Amino acid sequence: MNSIAERYRRFARVEAAGRSPLYETLAKHVAGTQHALTFLSRLPRDRQQPNLLFAALRHVCGTPMSITEFDEALGEHAQAIAEVMVTRTTQTNEPGRCAAFLPSLCQMQGPLALIEVGASAGLCLLPDAYGYDWERQQLAPPSQFGAIAPVFHCHASENAPLPLQHPEIVWRAGLDLNPLDLSNHEDVAWLENLIWPEHHERFARLRAAVQVARKNRPRVVAGDLRQDLSGLIAEAPSDATVVVFHTAVLSYIADQNDRDAFARSMIDTGVVWLSNESPGVFPEFAEKAGPIRENMFLLNINGQPVAWTGPHGQELQWL
Ligand SMILES: C[S@@+](CC[C@H](N)C(=O)[O-])C[C@H]1O[C@@H](n2cnc3c(N)ncnc32)[C@H](O)[C@@H]1O
């Protein structure tokens, strides 16, 4: 139980501090509360994460506004919360990440066939349907989505090659261990509960992106990126540039050998491979990017670092 308490203390200190006062308070509280630690210790080790607990509790009971409300919710609904924690995973779908990788897509020879591995509900498969505000340059959403599409704000460095138009994407598909279904109310509620409570802007744009995706449903098939990708690549039209991309996914593959094998297979297939992940995921590529930037993702194309990006797409620091 000590290690669970330490995990929650670390989450409060490193992840929640400055980003979510509520989660910071709750995580510290969990770390020092016997009944919460006992509850967590009865779950499988890979189901004890703070993000999963807080999202599951909100999914079952709504957002607790205080430690007292948290304790009451966990006391009264422990079984329902545990069920959510063992059946669901942290599948946060953050369409704002498109603002960080769209400029790279626009540099590729079109038309494009886009394949996203670890797509969750597929919201990042629609980068050509959203609007962008990179501060010194804007790109309006296409007219058919103009009224409902979110516009993603991203602070871009002076040297970032910002596009004047969306890329031409003629085919797209996603792959996920557990694709979330945007017509399923529970799945959409889960996506909403995964957004931290104070992140109102992210919540609003998630809702807007879901509206867009319901009008232009991206196909996401069930499968494991380690075994099931070649079938999708074979389906892509031969006259388009095939781009395989992933954001915030490879850290779910715990074994570095598996990650490296995936990287090698991507280089060998001859597709364009775009990876937007924490730099620790591919240390070999991160070495080429200079000093590690704290709390940033590294955007690699075919294993070559091109930019540091904010983990929610809020920043683009071109190398
Ligand atoms: C944090 S979410 C990121 C979703 C999306 N890429 C985004 O940036 O919004 C990670 C996703 O990766 C999926 N995933 C994890 N391991 C996977 C694997 N081996 N094969 C396919 N999908 C995987 C999870 O199911 C989850 O939906």
**Which ions and ligands are bound to the chains?**
S-adenosylmethionine
Q: Can you identify the CATH class of the largest domain?
A: Alpha Beta
- What's the CATH architecture of the largest domain? 3-Layer(aba) Sandwich
Model regions low in confidence, pLDDT < 50 over at least 5 residues: none
CATH fold description of the largest domain: Rossmann fold
- Averaged pLDDT, please? 97
Count of DSSP H/I helices: 11
Helical content, roughly? Answer: 25-40%
What's the β-strand tally? 12
The description of the largest β-sheet is: 9 strands, mixed
| Terminal Cα span | 43 Å
Whole-number count of domains = 2
What is the radius of gyration?
20 Å
The main sheet orders its strands as 5-12-11-10-9-8-1-6-7
The coarse silhouette is globular
Strand content: 15-25%
SS content category: alpha/beta
The H/E string reads HHHHHHEEEEEEHHEHEHEHEEE
Sequence-ordered SSE layout with sheet pairings:
Layout: H1 2-16, H2 21-31, H3 34-41, H4 50-61, H5 67-87, H6 98-106, E1 112-117, E2 131-133, E3 138-139, E4 151-153, E5 155-156, E6 169-176, H7 185-193, H8 200-215, E7 220-222, H9 229-235, E8 241-247, H10 256-269, E9 272-277, H11 283-286, E10 297-301, E11 304-309, E12 315-318
Parallel strand pairs: 1-6, 1-8, 2-4, 5-12, 6-7, 8-9
Antiparallel strand pairs: 2-3, 9-10, 10-11, 11-12
Helix pairs in contact: 1-2, 4-5
Bound molecules: S-adenosylmethionine.
S-adenosylmethionine (SAM) is lined by residues 89-94, 97, 117-120, 124, 175-178, 224-226, 247-249, 252-253.
